[in-house]
Automatic annotation (TrEMBL):
<keyword id="KW-0325">Glycoprotein</keyword>
<keyword id="KW-0472">Membrane</keyword>
<dbReference type="InterPro" id="IPR033989">
    <property type="entry name" value="CD209-like_CTLD"/>
</dbReference>
<dbReference type="InterPro" id="IPR052309">
    <property type="entry name" value="C-type_Lectin_Domain_Fam1"/>
</dbReference>
<dbReference type="InterPro" id="IPR016186">
    <property type="entry name" value="C-type_lectin-like/link_sf"/>
</dbReference>
<dbReference type="InterPro" id="IPR001304">
    <property type="entry name" value="C-type_lectin-like"/>
</dbReference>
<dbReference type="Pfam" id="PF00059">
    <property type="entry name" value="Lectin_C"/>
</dbReference>
<feature type="transmembrane region" description="Helical">
    <location>
        <begin position="55"/>
        <end position="78"/>
    </location>
</feature>
<keyword id="KW-0812">Transmembrane</keyword>
<feature type="domain" description="C-type lectin">
    <location>
        <begin position="118"/>
        <end position="223"/>
    </location>
</feature>
<protein>
    <submittedName>
        <fullName>CD209 antigen-like protein C isoform X3</fullName>
    </submittedName>
</protein>
<dbReference type="InterPro" id="IPR016187">
    <property type="entry name" value="CTDL_fold"/>
</dbReference>
<dbReference type="InterPro" id="IPR018378">
    <property type="entry name" value="C-type_lectin_CS"/>
</dbReference>
<keyword id="KW-1015">Disulfide bond</keyword>
<dbReference type="GO" id="GO:0030246">
    <property type="term" value="F:carbohydrate binding"/>
</dbReference>
<keyword id="KW-1133">Transmembrane helix</keyword>
<keyword id="KW-0430">Lectin</keyword>
């Protein structure tokens, strides 16, 4: 009986040990599986973290490129505007210098003898008589040209001739006479075929012009316009 009880007790103990070992093995397997899952999750977290870092780095790189491009554009615009401003300033200074020089010339010319200022022009009245060509040459030496004043009480040359083409009267600046003229009655008549220069020969404002031989000596008036 004791032997039988002992065998039963021993068998029961062995069974308990086997169950404990089995449970321990199962627990160990579960723990191992949990460890594997944990390691796998950690590895996945690292992969996701690396991907996020790469995306952030790419975004920051693109942002830096955009900022750099904007900075370059701003520098270019500033340089261009600054260059344009300097160019405009130089042009303005040049224009002011030219205006100043012209004003000085005008004042100097006005102070000279025999120059008369009238309606933005200076007029020089000759004190001698010369042929038409010489009269014009004298005016051009004074940086002026032949002109006329209607009510001048003496015969004098005006800057009008048809020396280039007979019958086609032009002013000394090359412009045609046009429809407005002050020829005396029956003038110009090109008497004897030698009258190619115009003069003032009467006091009539409407009919004061006459054509005359260019080699005749007469008074003249130079005009210099203020620019």
């Amino acid at each position: 009986m004791d032997r039988l009880y002992g065998n039963v007790k021993e068998g029961h103990h062995s069974k308990w040990i086997d169950e404990a070992i089995y449970a321990n093995d199962i627990g160990h397997d579960v723990e191992s599986d949990n460890t594997v899952y944990a390691l796998a999750g950690h590895a996945g977290l690292k992969v996701n973290t690396k991907r996020s870092c790469r995306a952030a780095a790419l975004f920051l790189g693109l942002l830096c490129l955009l900022l750099l491009a904007g900075l370059v554009a701003l520098v270019f615009l500033y340089t261009r505007d600054n260059s344009n401003w300097k160019t405009e300033r130089v042009h303005l200074q040049t224009s002011l210098a030219e205006e100043k020089d012209q004003l000085n010339k005008t004042l100097a010319l006005q102070s000279q003898e025999k120059w008369i200022y009238f309606r933005r022009s200076f007029y020089y009245v000759s004190s001698t008589r010369k042929p038409w060509n010489e009269s014009r040459w004298d005016c051009r030496q004074k940086d002026a040209d032949l002109e006329f004043v209607r009510r001048w009480k003496t015969r004098m040359w005006i800057g009008l001739s048809d020396t280039e083409k007979e019958g086609t009267w032009t002013w000394v600046d090359g412009s045609p006479l046009g429809s407005q003229s002050y020829w005396a009655k029956s003038e110009p008549n090109d008497a004897k075929g030698v009258e190619d220069c115009a003069e003032i020969h009467s006091y009539d404002e409407q009919q004061s012009w006459n054509d005359a031989p260019c080699q005749n000596e007469k008074d003249w008036i130079c005009e210099r316009r203020v620019k």
